[in-house]
């Protein structure tokens, strides 16, 4: 949430891995983040419940089929890396 707040306050953009997707944080609350696609129509929502349900997948390196906007947002965190196409949380 801290990273989302920083990007929201500074009105910064972030990009997908291939640099084709451009996103901004549209809204931040205590339990969700809304990601605005600058080249699309629909916004993506990362809820606290969605993230917590899939956090074990991140820790164990299991596949998590999330949309590209959410994937790009998660990769902003310094401890979340991509290995062999799968997001992994490294402690």
Description of the structure:
The protein is an alpha+beta fold. Helices cover about 30% and strands about 30% of the residues. It has three helices and six strands, in the order H-E-E-E-E-H-H-E-E. The mean pLDDT is about 90.
Quick gist of this model?
With 91 residues, this protein is of the alpha+beta class. The chain has helices spanning 2-10, 48-60, 68-74; strands at residues 13-15, 22-28, 32-37, 44-47, 80-83, 86-89.
Query: What topology, given as strand order, has the largest sheet?
Result: 1-2-3-4
Number of helices: 3
Please outline the major beta sheet: 4 strands, antiparallel
Ends: how far apart? 18 Å
Return the average pLDDT rounded to an integer: 89
H/E series, N to C? HEEEEHHEE
- The counted number of beta strands is 6
Low-confidence spans: none
Strand percentage: 25-35%
Overall radius of gyration = 13 Å
Helix content: 25-40%
The backbone outline, from C-alpha atoms, is globular
The helix-and-strand class reads alpha+beta
